[in-house]
Amino acid sequence: xxxxxxxxxGAGGGLAIEALAIFHCCCAWQAARRTRSSRLRTNPPLLSTxxxxxxxxxxxxxxxxxxxxxxxLFGTSGQIDGAVAAVALGVAAPAVLAQLGRALPGFAQAAExxxxxxxxxxxxxxxNTPPTGGGQ
Length: 136
Known about the structure:
The protein is mostly helical. The chain has helices spanning 3-32, 47-50, 53-76, 83-91, 93-115. It has one domain (3-103).
């Protein structure tokens, strides 16, 4: 699959998550417009009360970029292969990037520690004998 397929499919996955968030806002708005007997209220709330268009537009852009970038990186490096994996990675991109962000400082510290590590600890043997003592 060409690199740009990964980017487009990943962006689509990221946008799908924002579309789901917009769907939930619209469902809440629809429920608020109705009475308990499902009749339309005389003074229903405005859609803008439930849907923050500038925030959703900004998040859609960010989620699309996260999805495209993550799928592109994983796809071109051979970590994933196929359309379903690219879309799924686009959906999960914020969580994947957050997890990588937490892991990368640990990798850097491990690499530094390997070059400046002190002598290993003395050999500690584990006994296979059961512990002695009271109890049962």
